[in-house]
Amino acid sequence: MPPRSVPTARQVRLGTELRRMREGAGLSIQEAADRLGINRTHITNLELARFGVSEERVRALAAIYTCPDHGYVDALVSMTRERKGGWWEEYRGHIATGGLDLAELEYYATSLRVVELMFLPGLLQTEEYARAVLGEAVPAWSPPELRRRLSHRMKRRDILDRDDPPPCTFIIHEACLRLRFGGPQLMRRQLDSLLEASTRENVTVRVIPFEAGGFPVSGVSMTYASGPVPQLDTVQLDAAHGPMFLDAETQLTNHRAVLARTMKVTLPQKESRDMIHGIAQHL
């Protein structure tokens, strides 16, 4: 099997979890290799996601590391079966890697909690709103680049329409509702679309009003993607240089607490819808 040129974030995560499992067992790379009867370089390559790993190898490593969490091991095994890249692979080389990793994260999440402070969530953006937002990029993208990014953003929304859509909670600051990207009429159509999306069974929209004052995530937008087991959750933070992905146990614990505190300052679902409707009516 040839080495991977650029492993995806999910492939890197699987390697990271194998390393964490080994370190949790108190074994060095050499000790793990000796017990498995392979070269230590092979262990290193697996942990760095340079090569794929089989279901049998994951179970063998879990047995050597005496991992007691069968649900966790089964979740790792399921990741080894993902041999074929997702739809986002057609954009590789045209879209920044962070954008591809975000699409992959959303696709495999069992649930999503999104906090947005300035822009409406990408998964809920209309095409014309997304074009207006992407059109503000500095430096400006060429028309072909803009079309590719717009196409990628629209394709991400497909997870909401599949047969088993993940439960999604969108926490949106009031500022997102009032910034008129593309002008008032375009924004009104976007807010109408947001209201329609909020009626979906798997979608919850909650608004943080200006009156709420400060709150834990002020200054940063985030996506909390739940995995099949809590150890495989991931936090994605927006940054000027691109998305940041966090998955250390302490980071996950902290961001769960942040989300819980942030939800306390949001308006209930009905009041959130009423605010969105009221702002749309005055555009």
Automatic annotation (TrEMBL):
SMART domains tied to this protein: HTH_XRE (SM00530)
InterPro entries, per database record: Cro/C1-type_HTH, DUF5753, Lambda_DNA-bd_dom_sf
GO molecular function: DNA binding
Top-level taxon of the source organism: Bacteria
Pfam families: DUF5753, HTH_31
PROSITE patterns assigned to the protein according to its UniProt record, in alphabetical order: HTH_CROC1 (PS50943)
Start and end residues of each HTH cro/C1-type domain: 18-73
Name listed for the protein in its UniProt record: Xre family toxin-antitoxin system, antitoxin component
Protein source organism: Streptomyces himastatinicus ATCC 53653
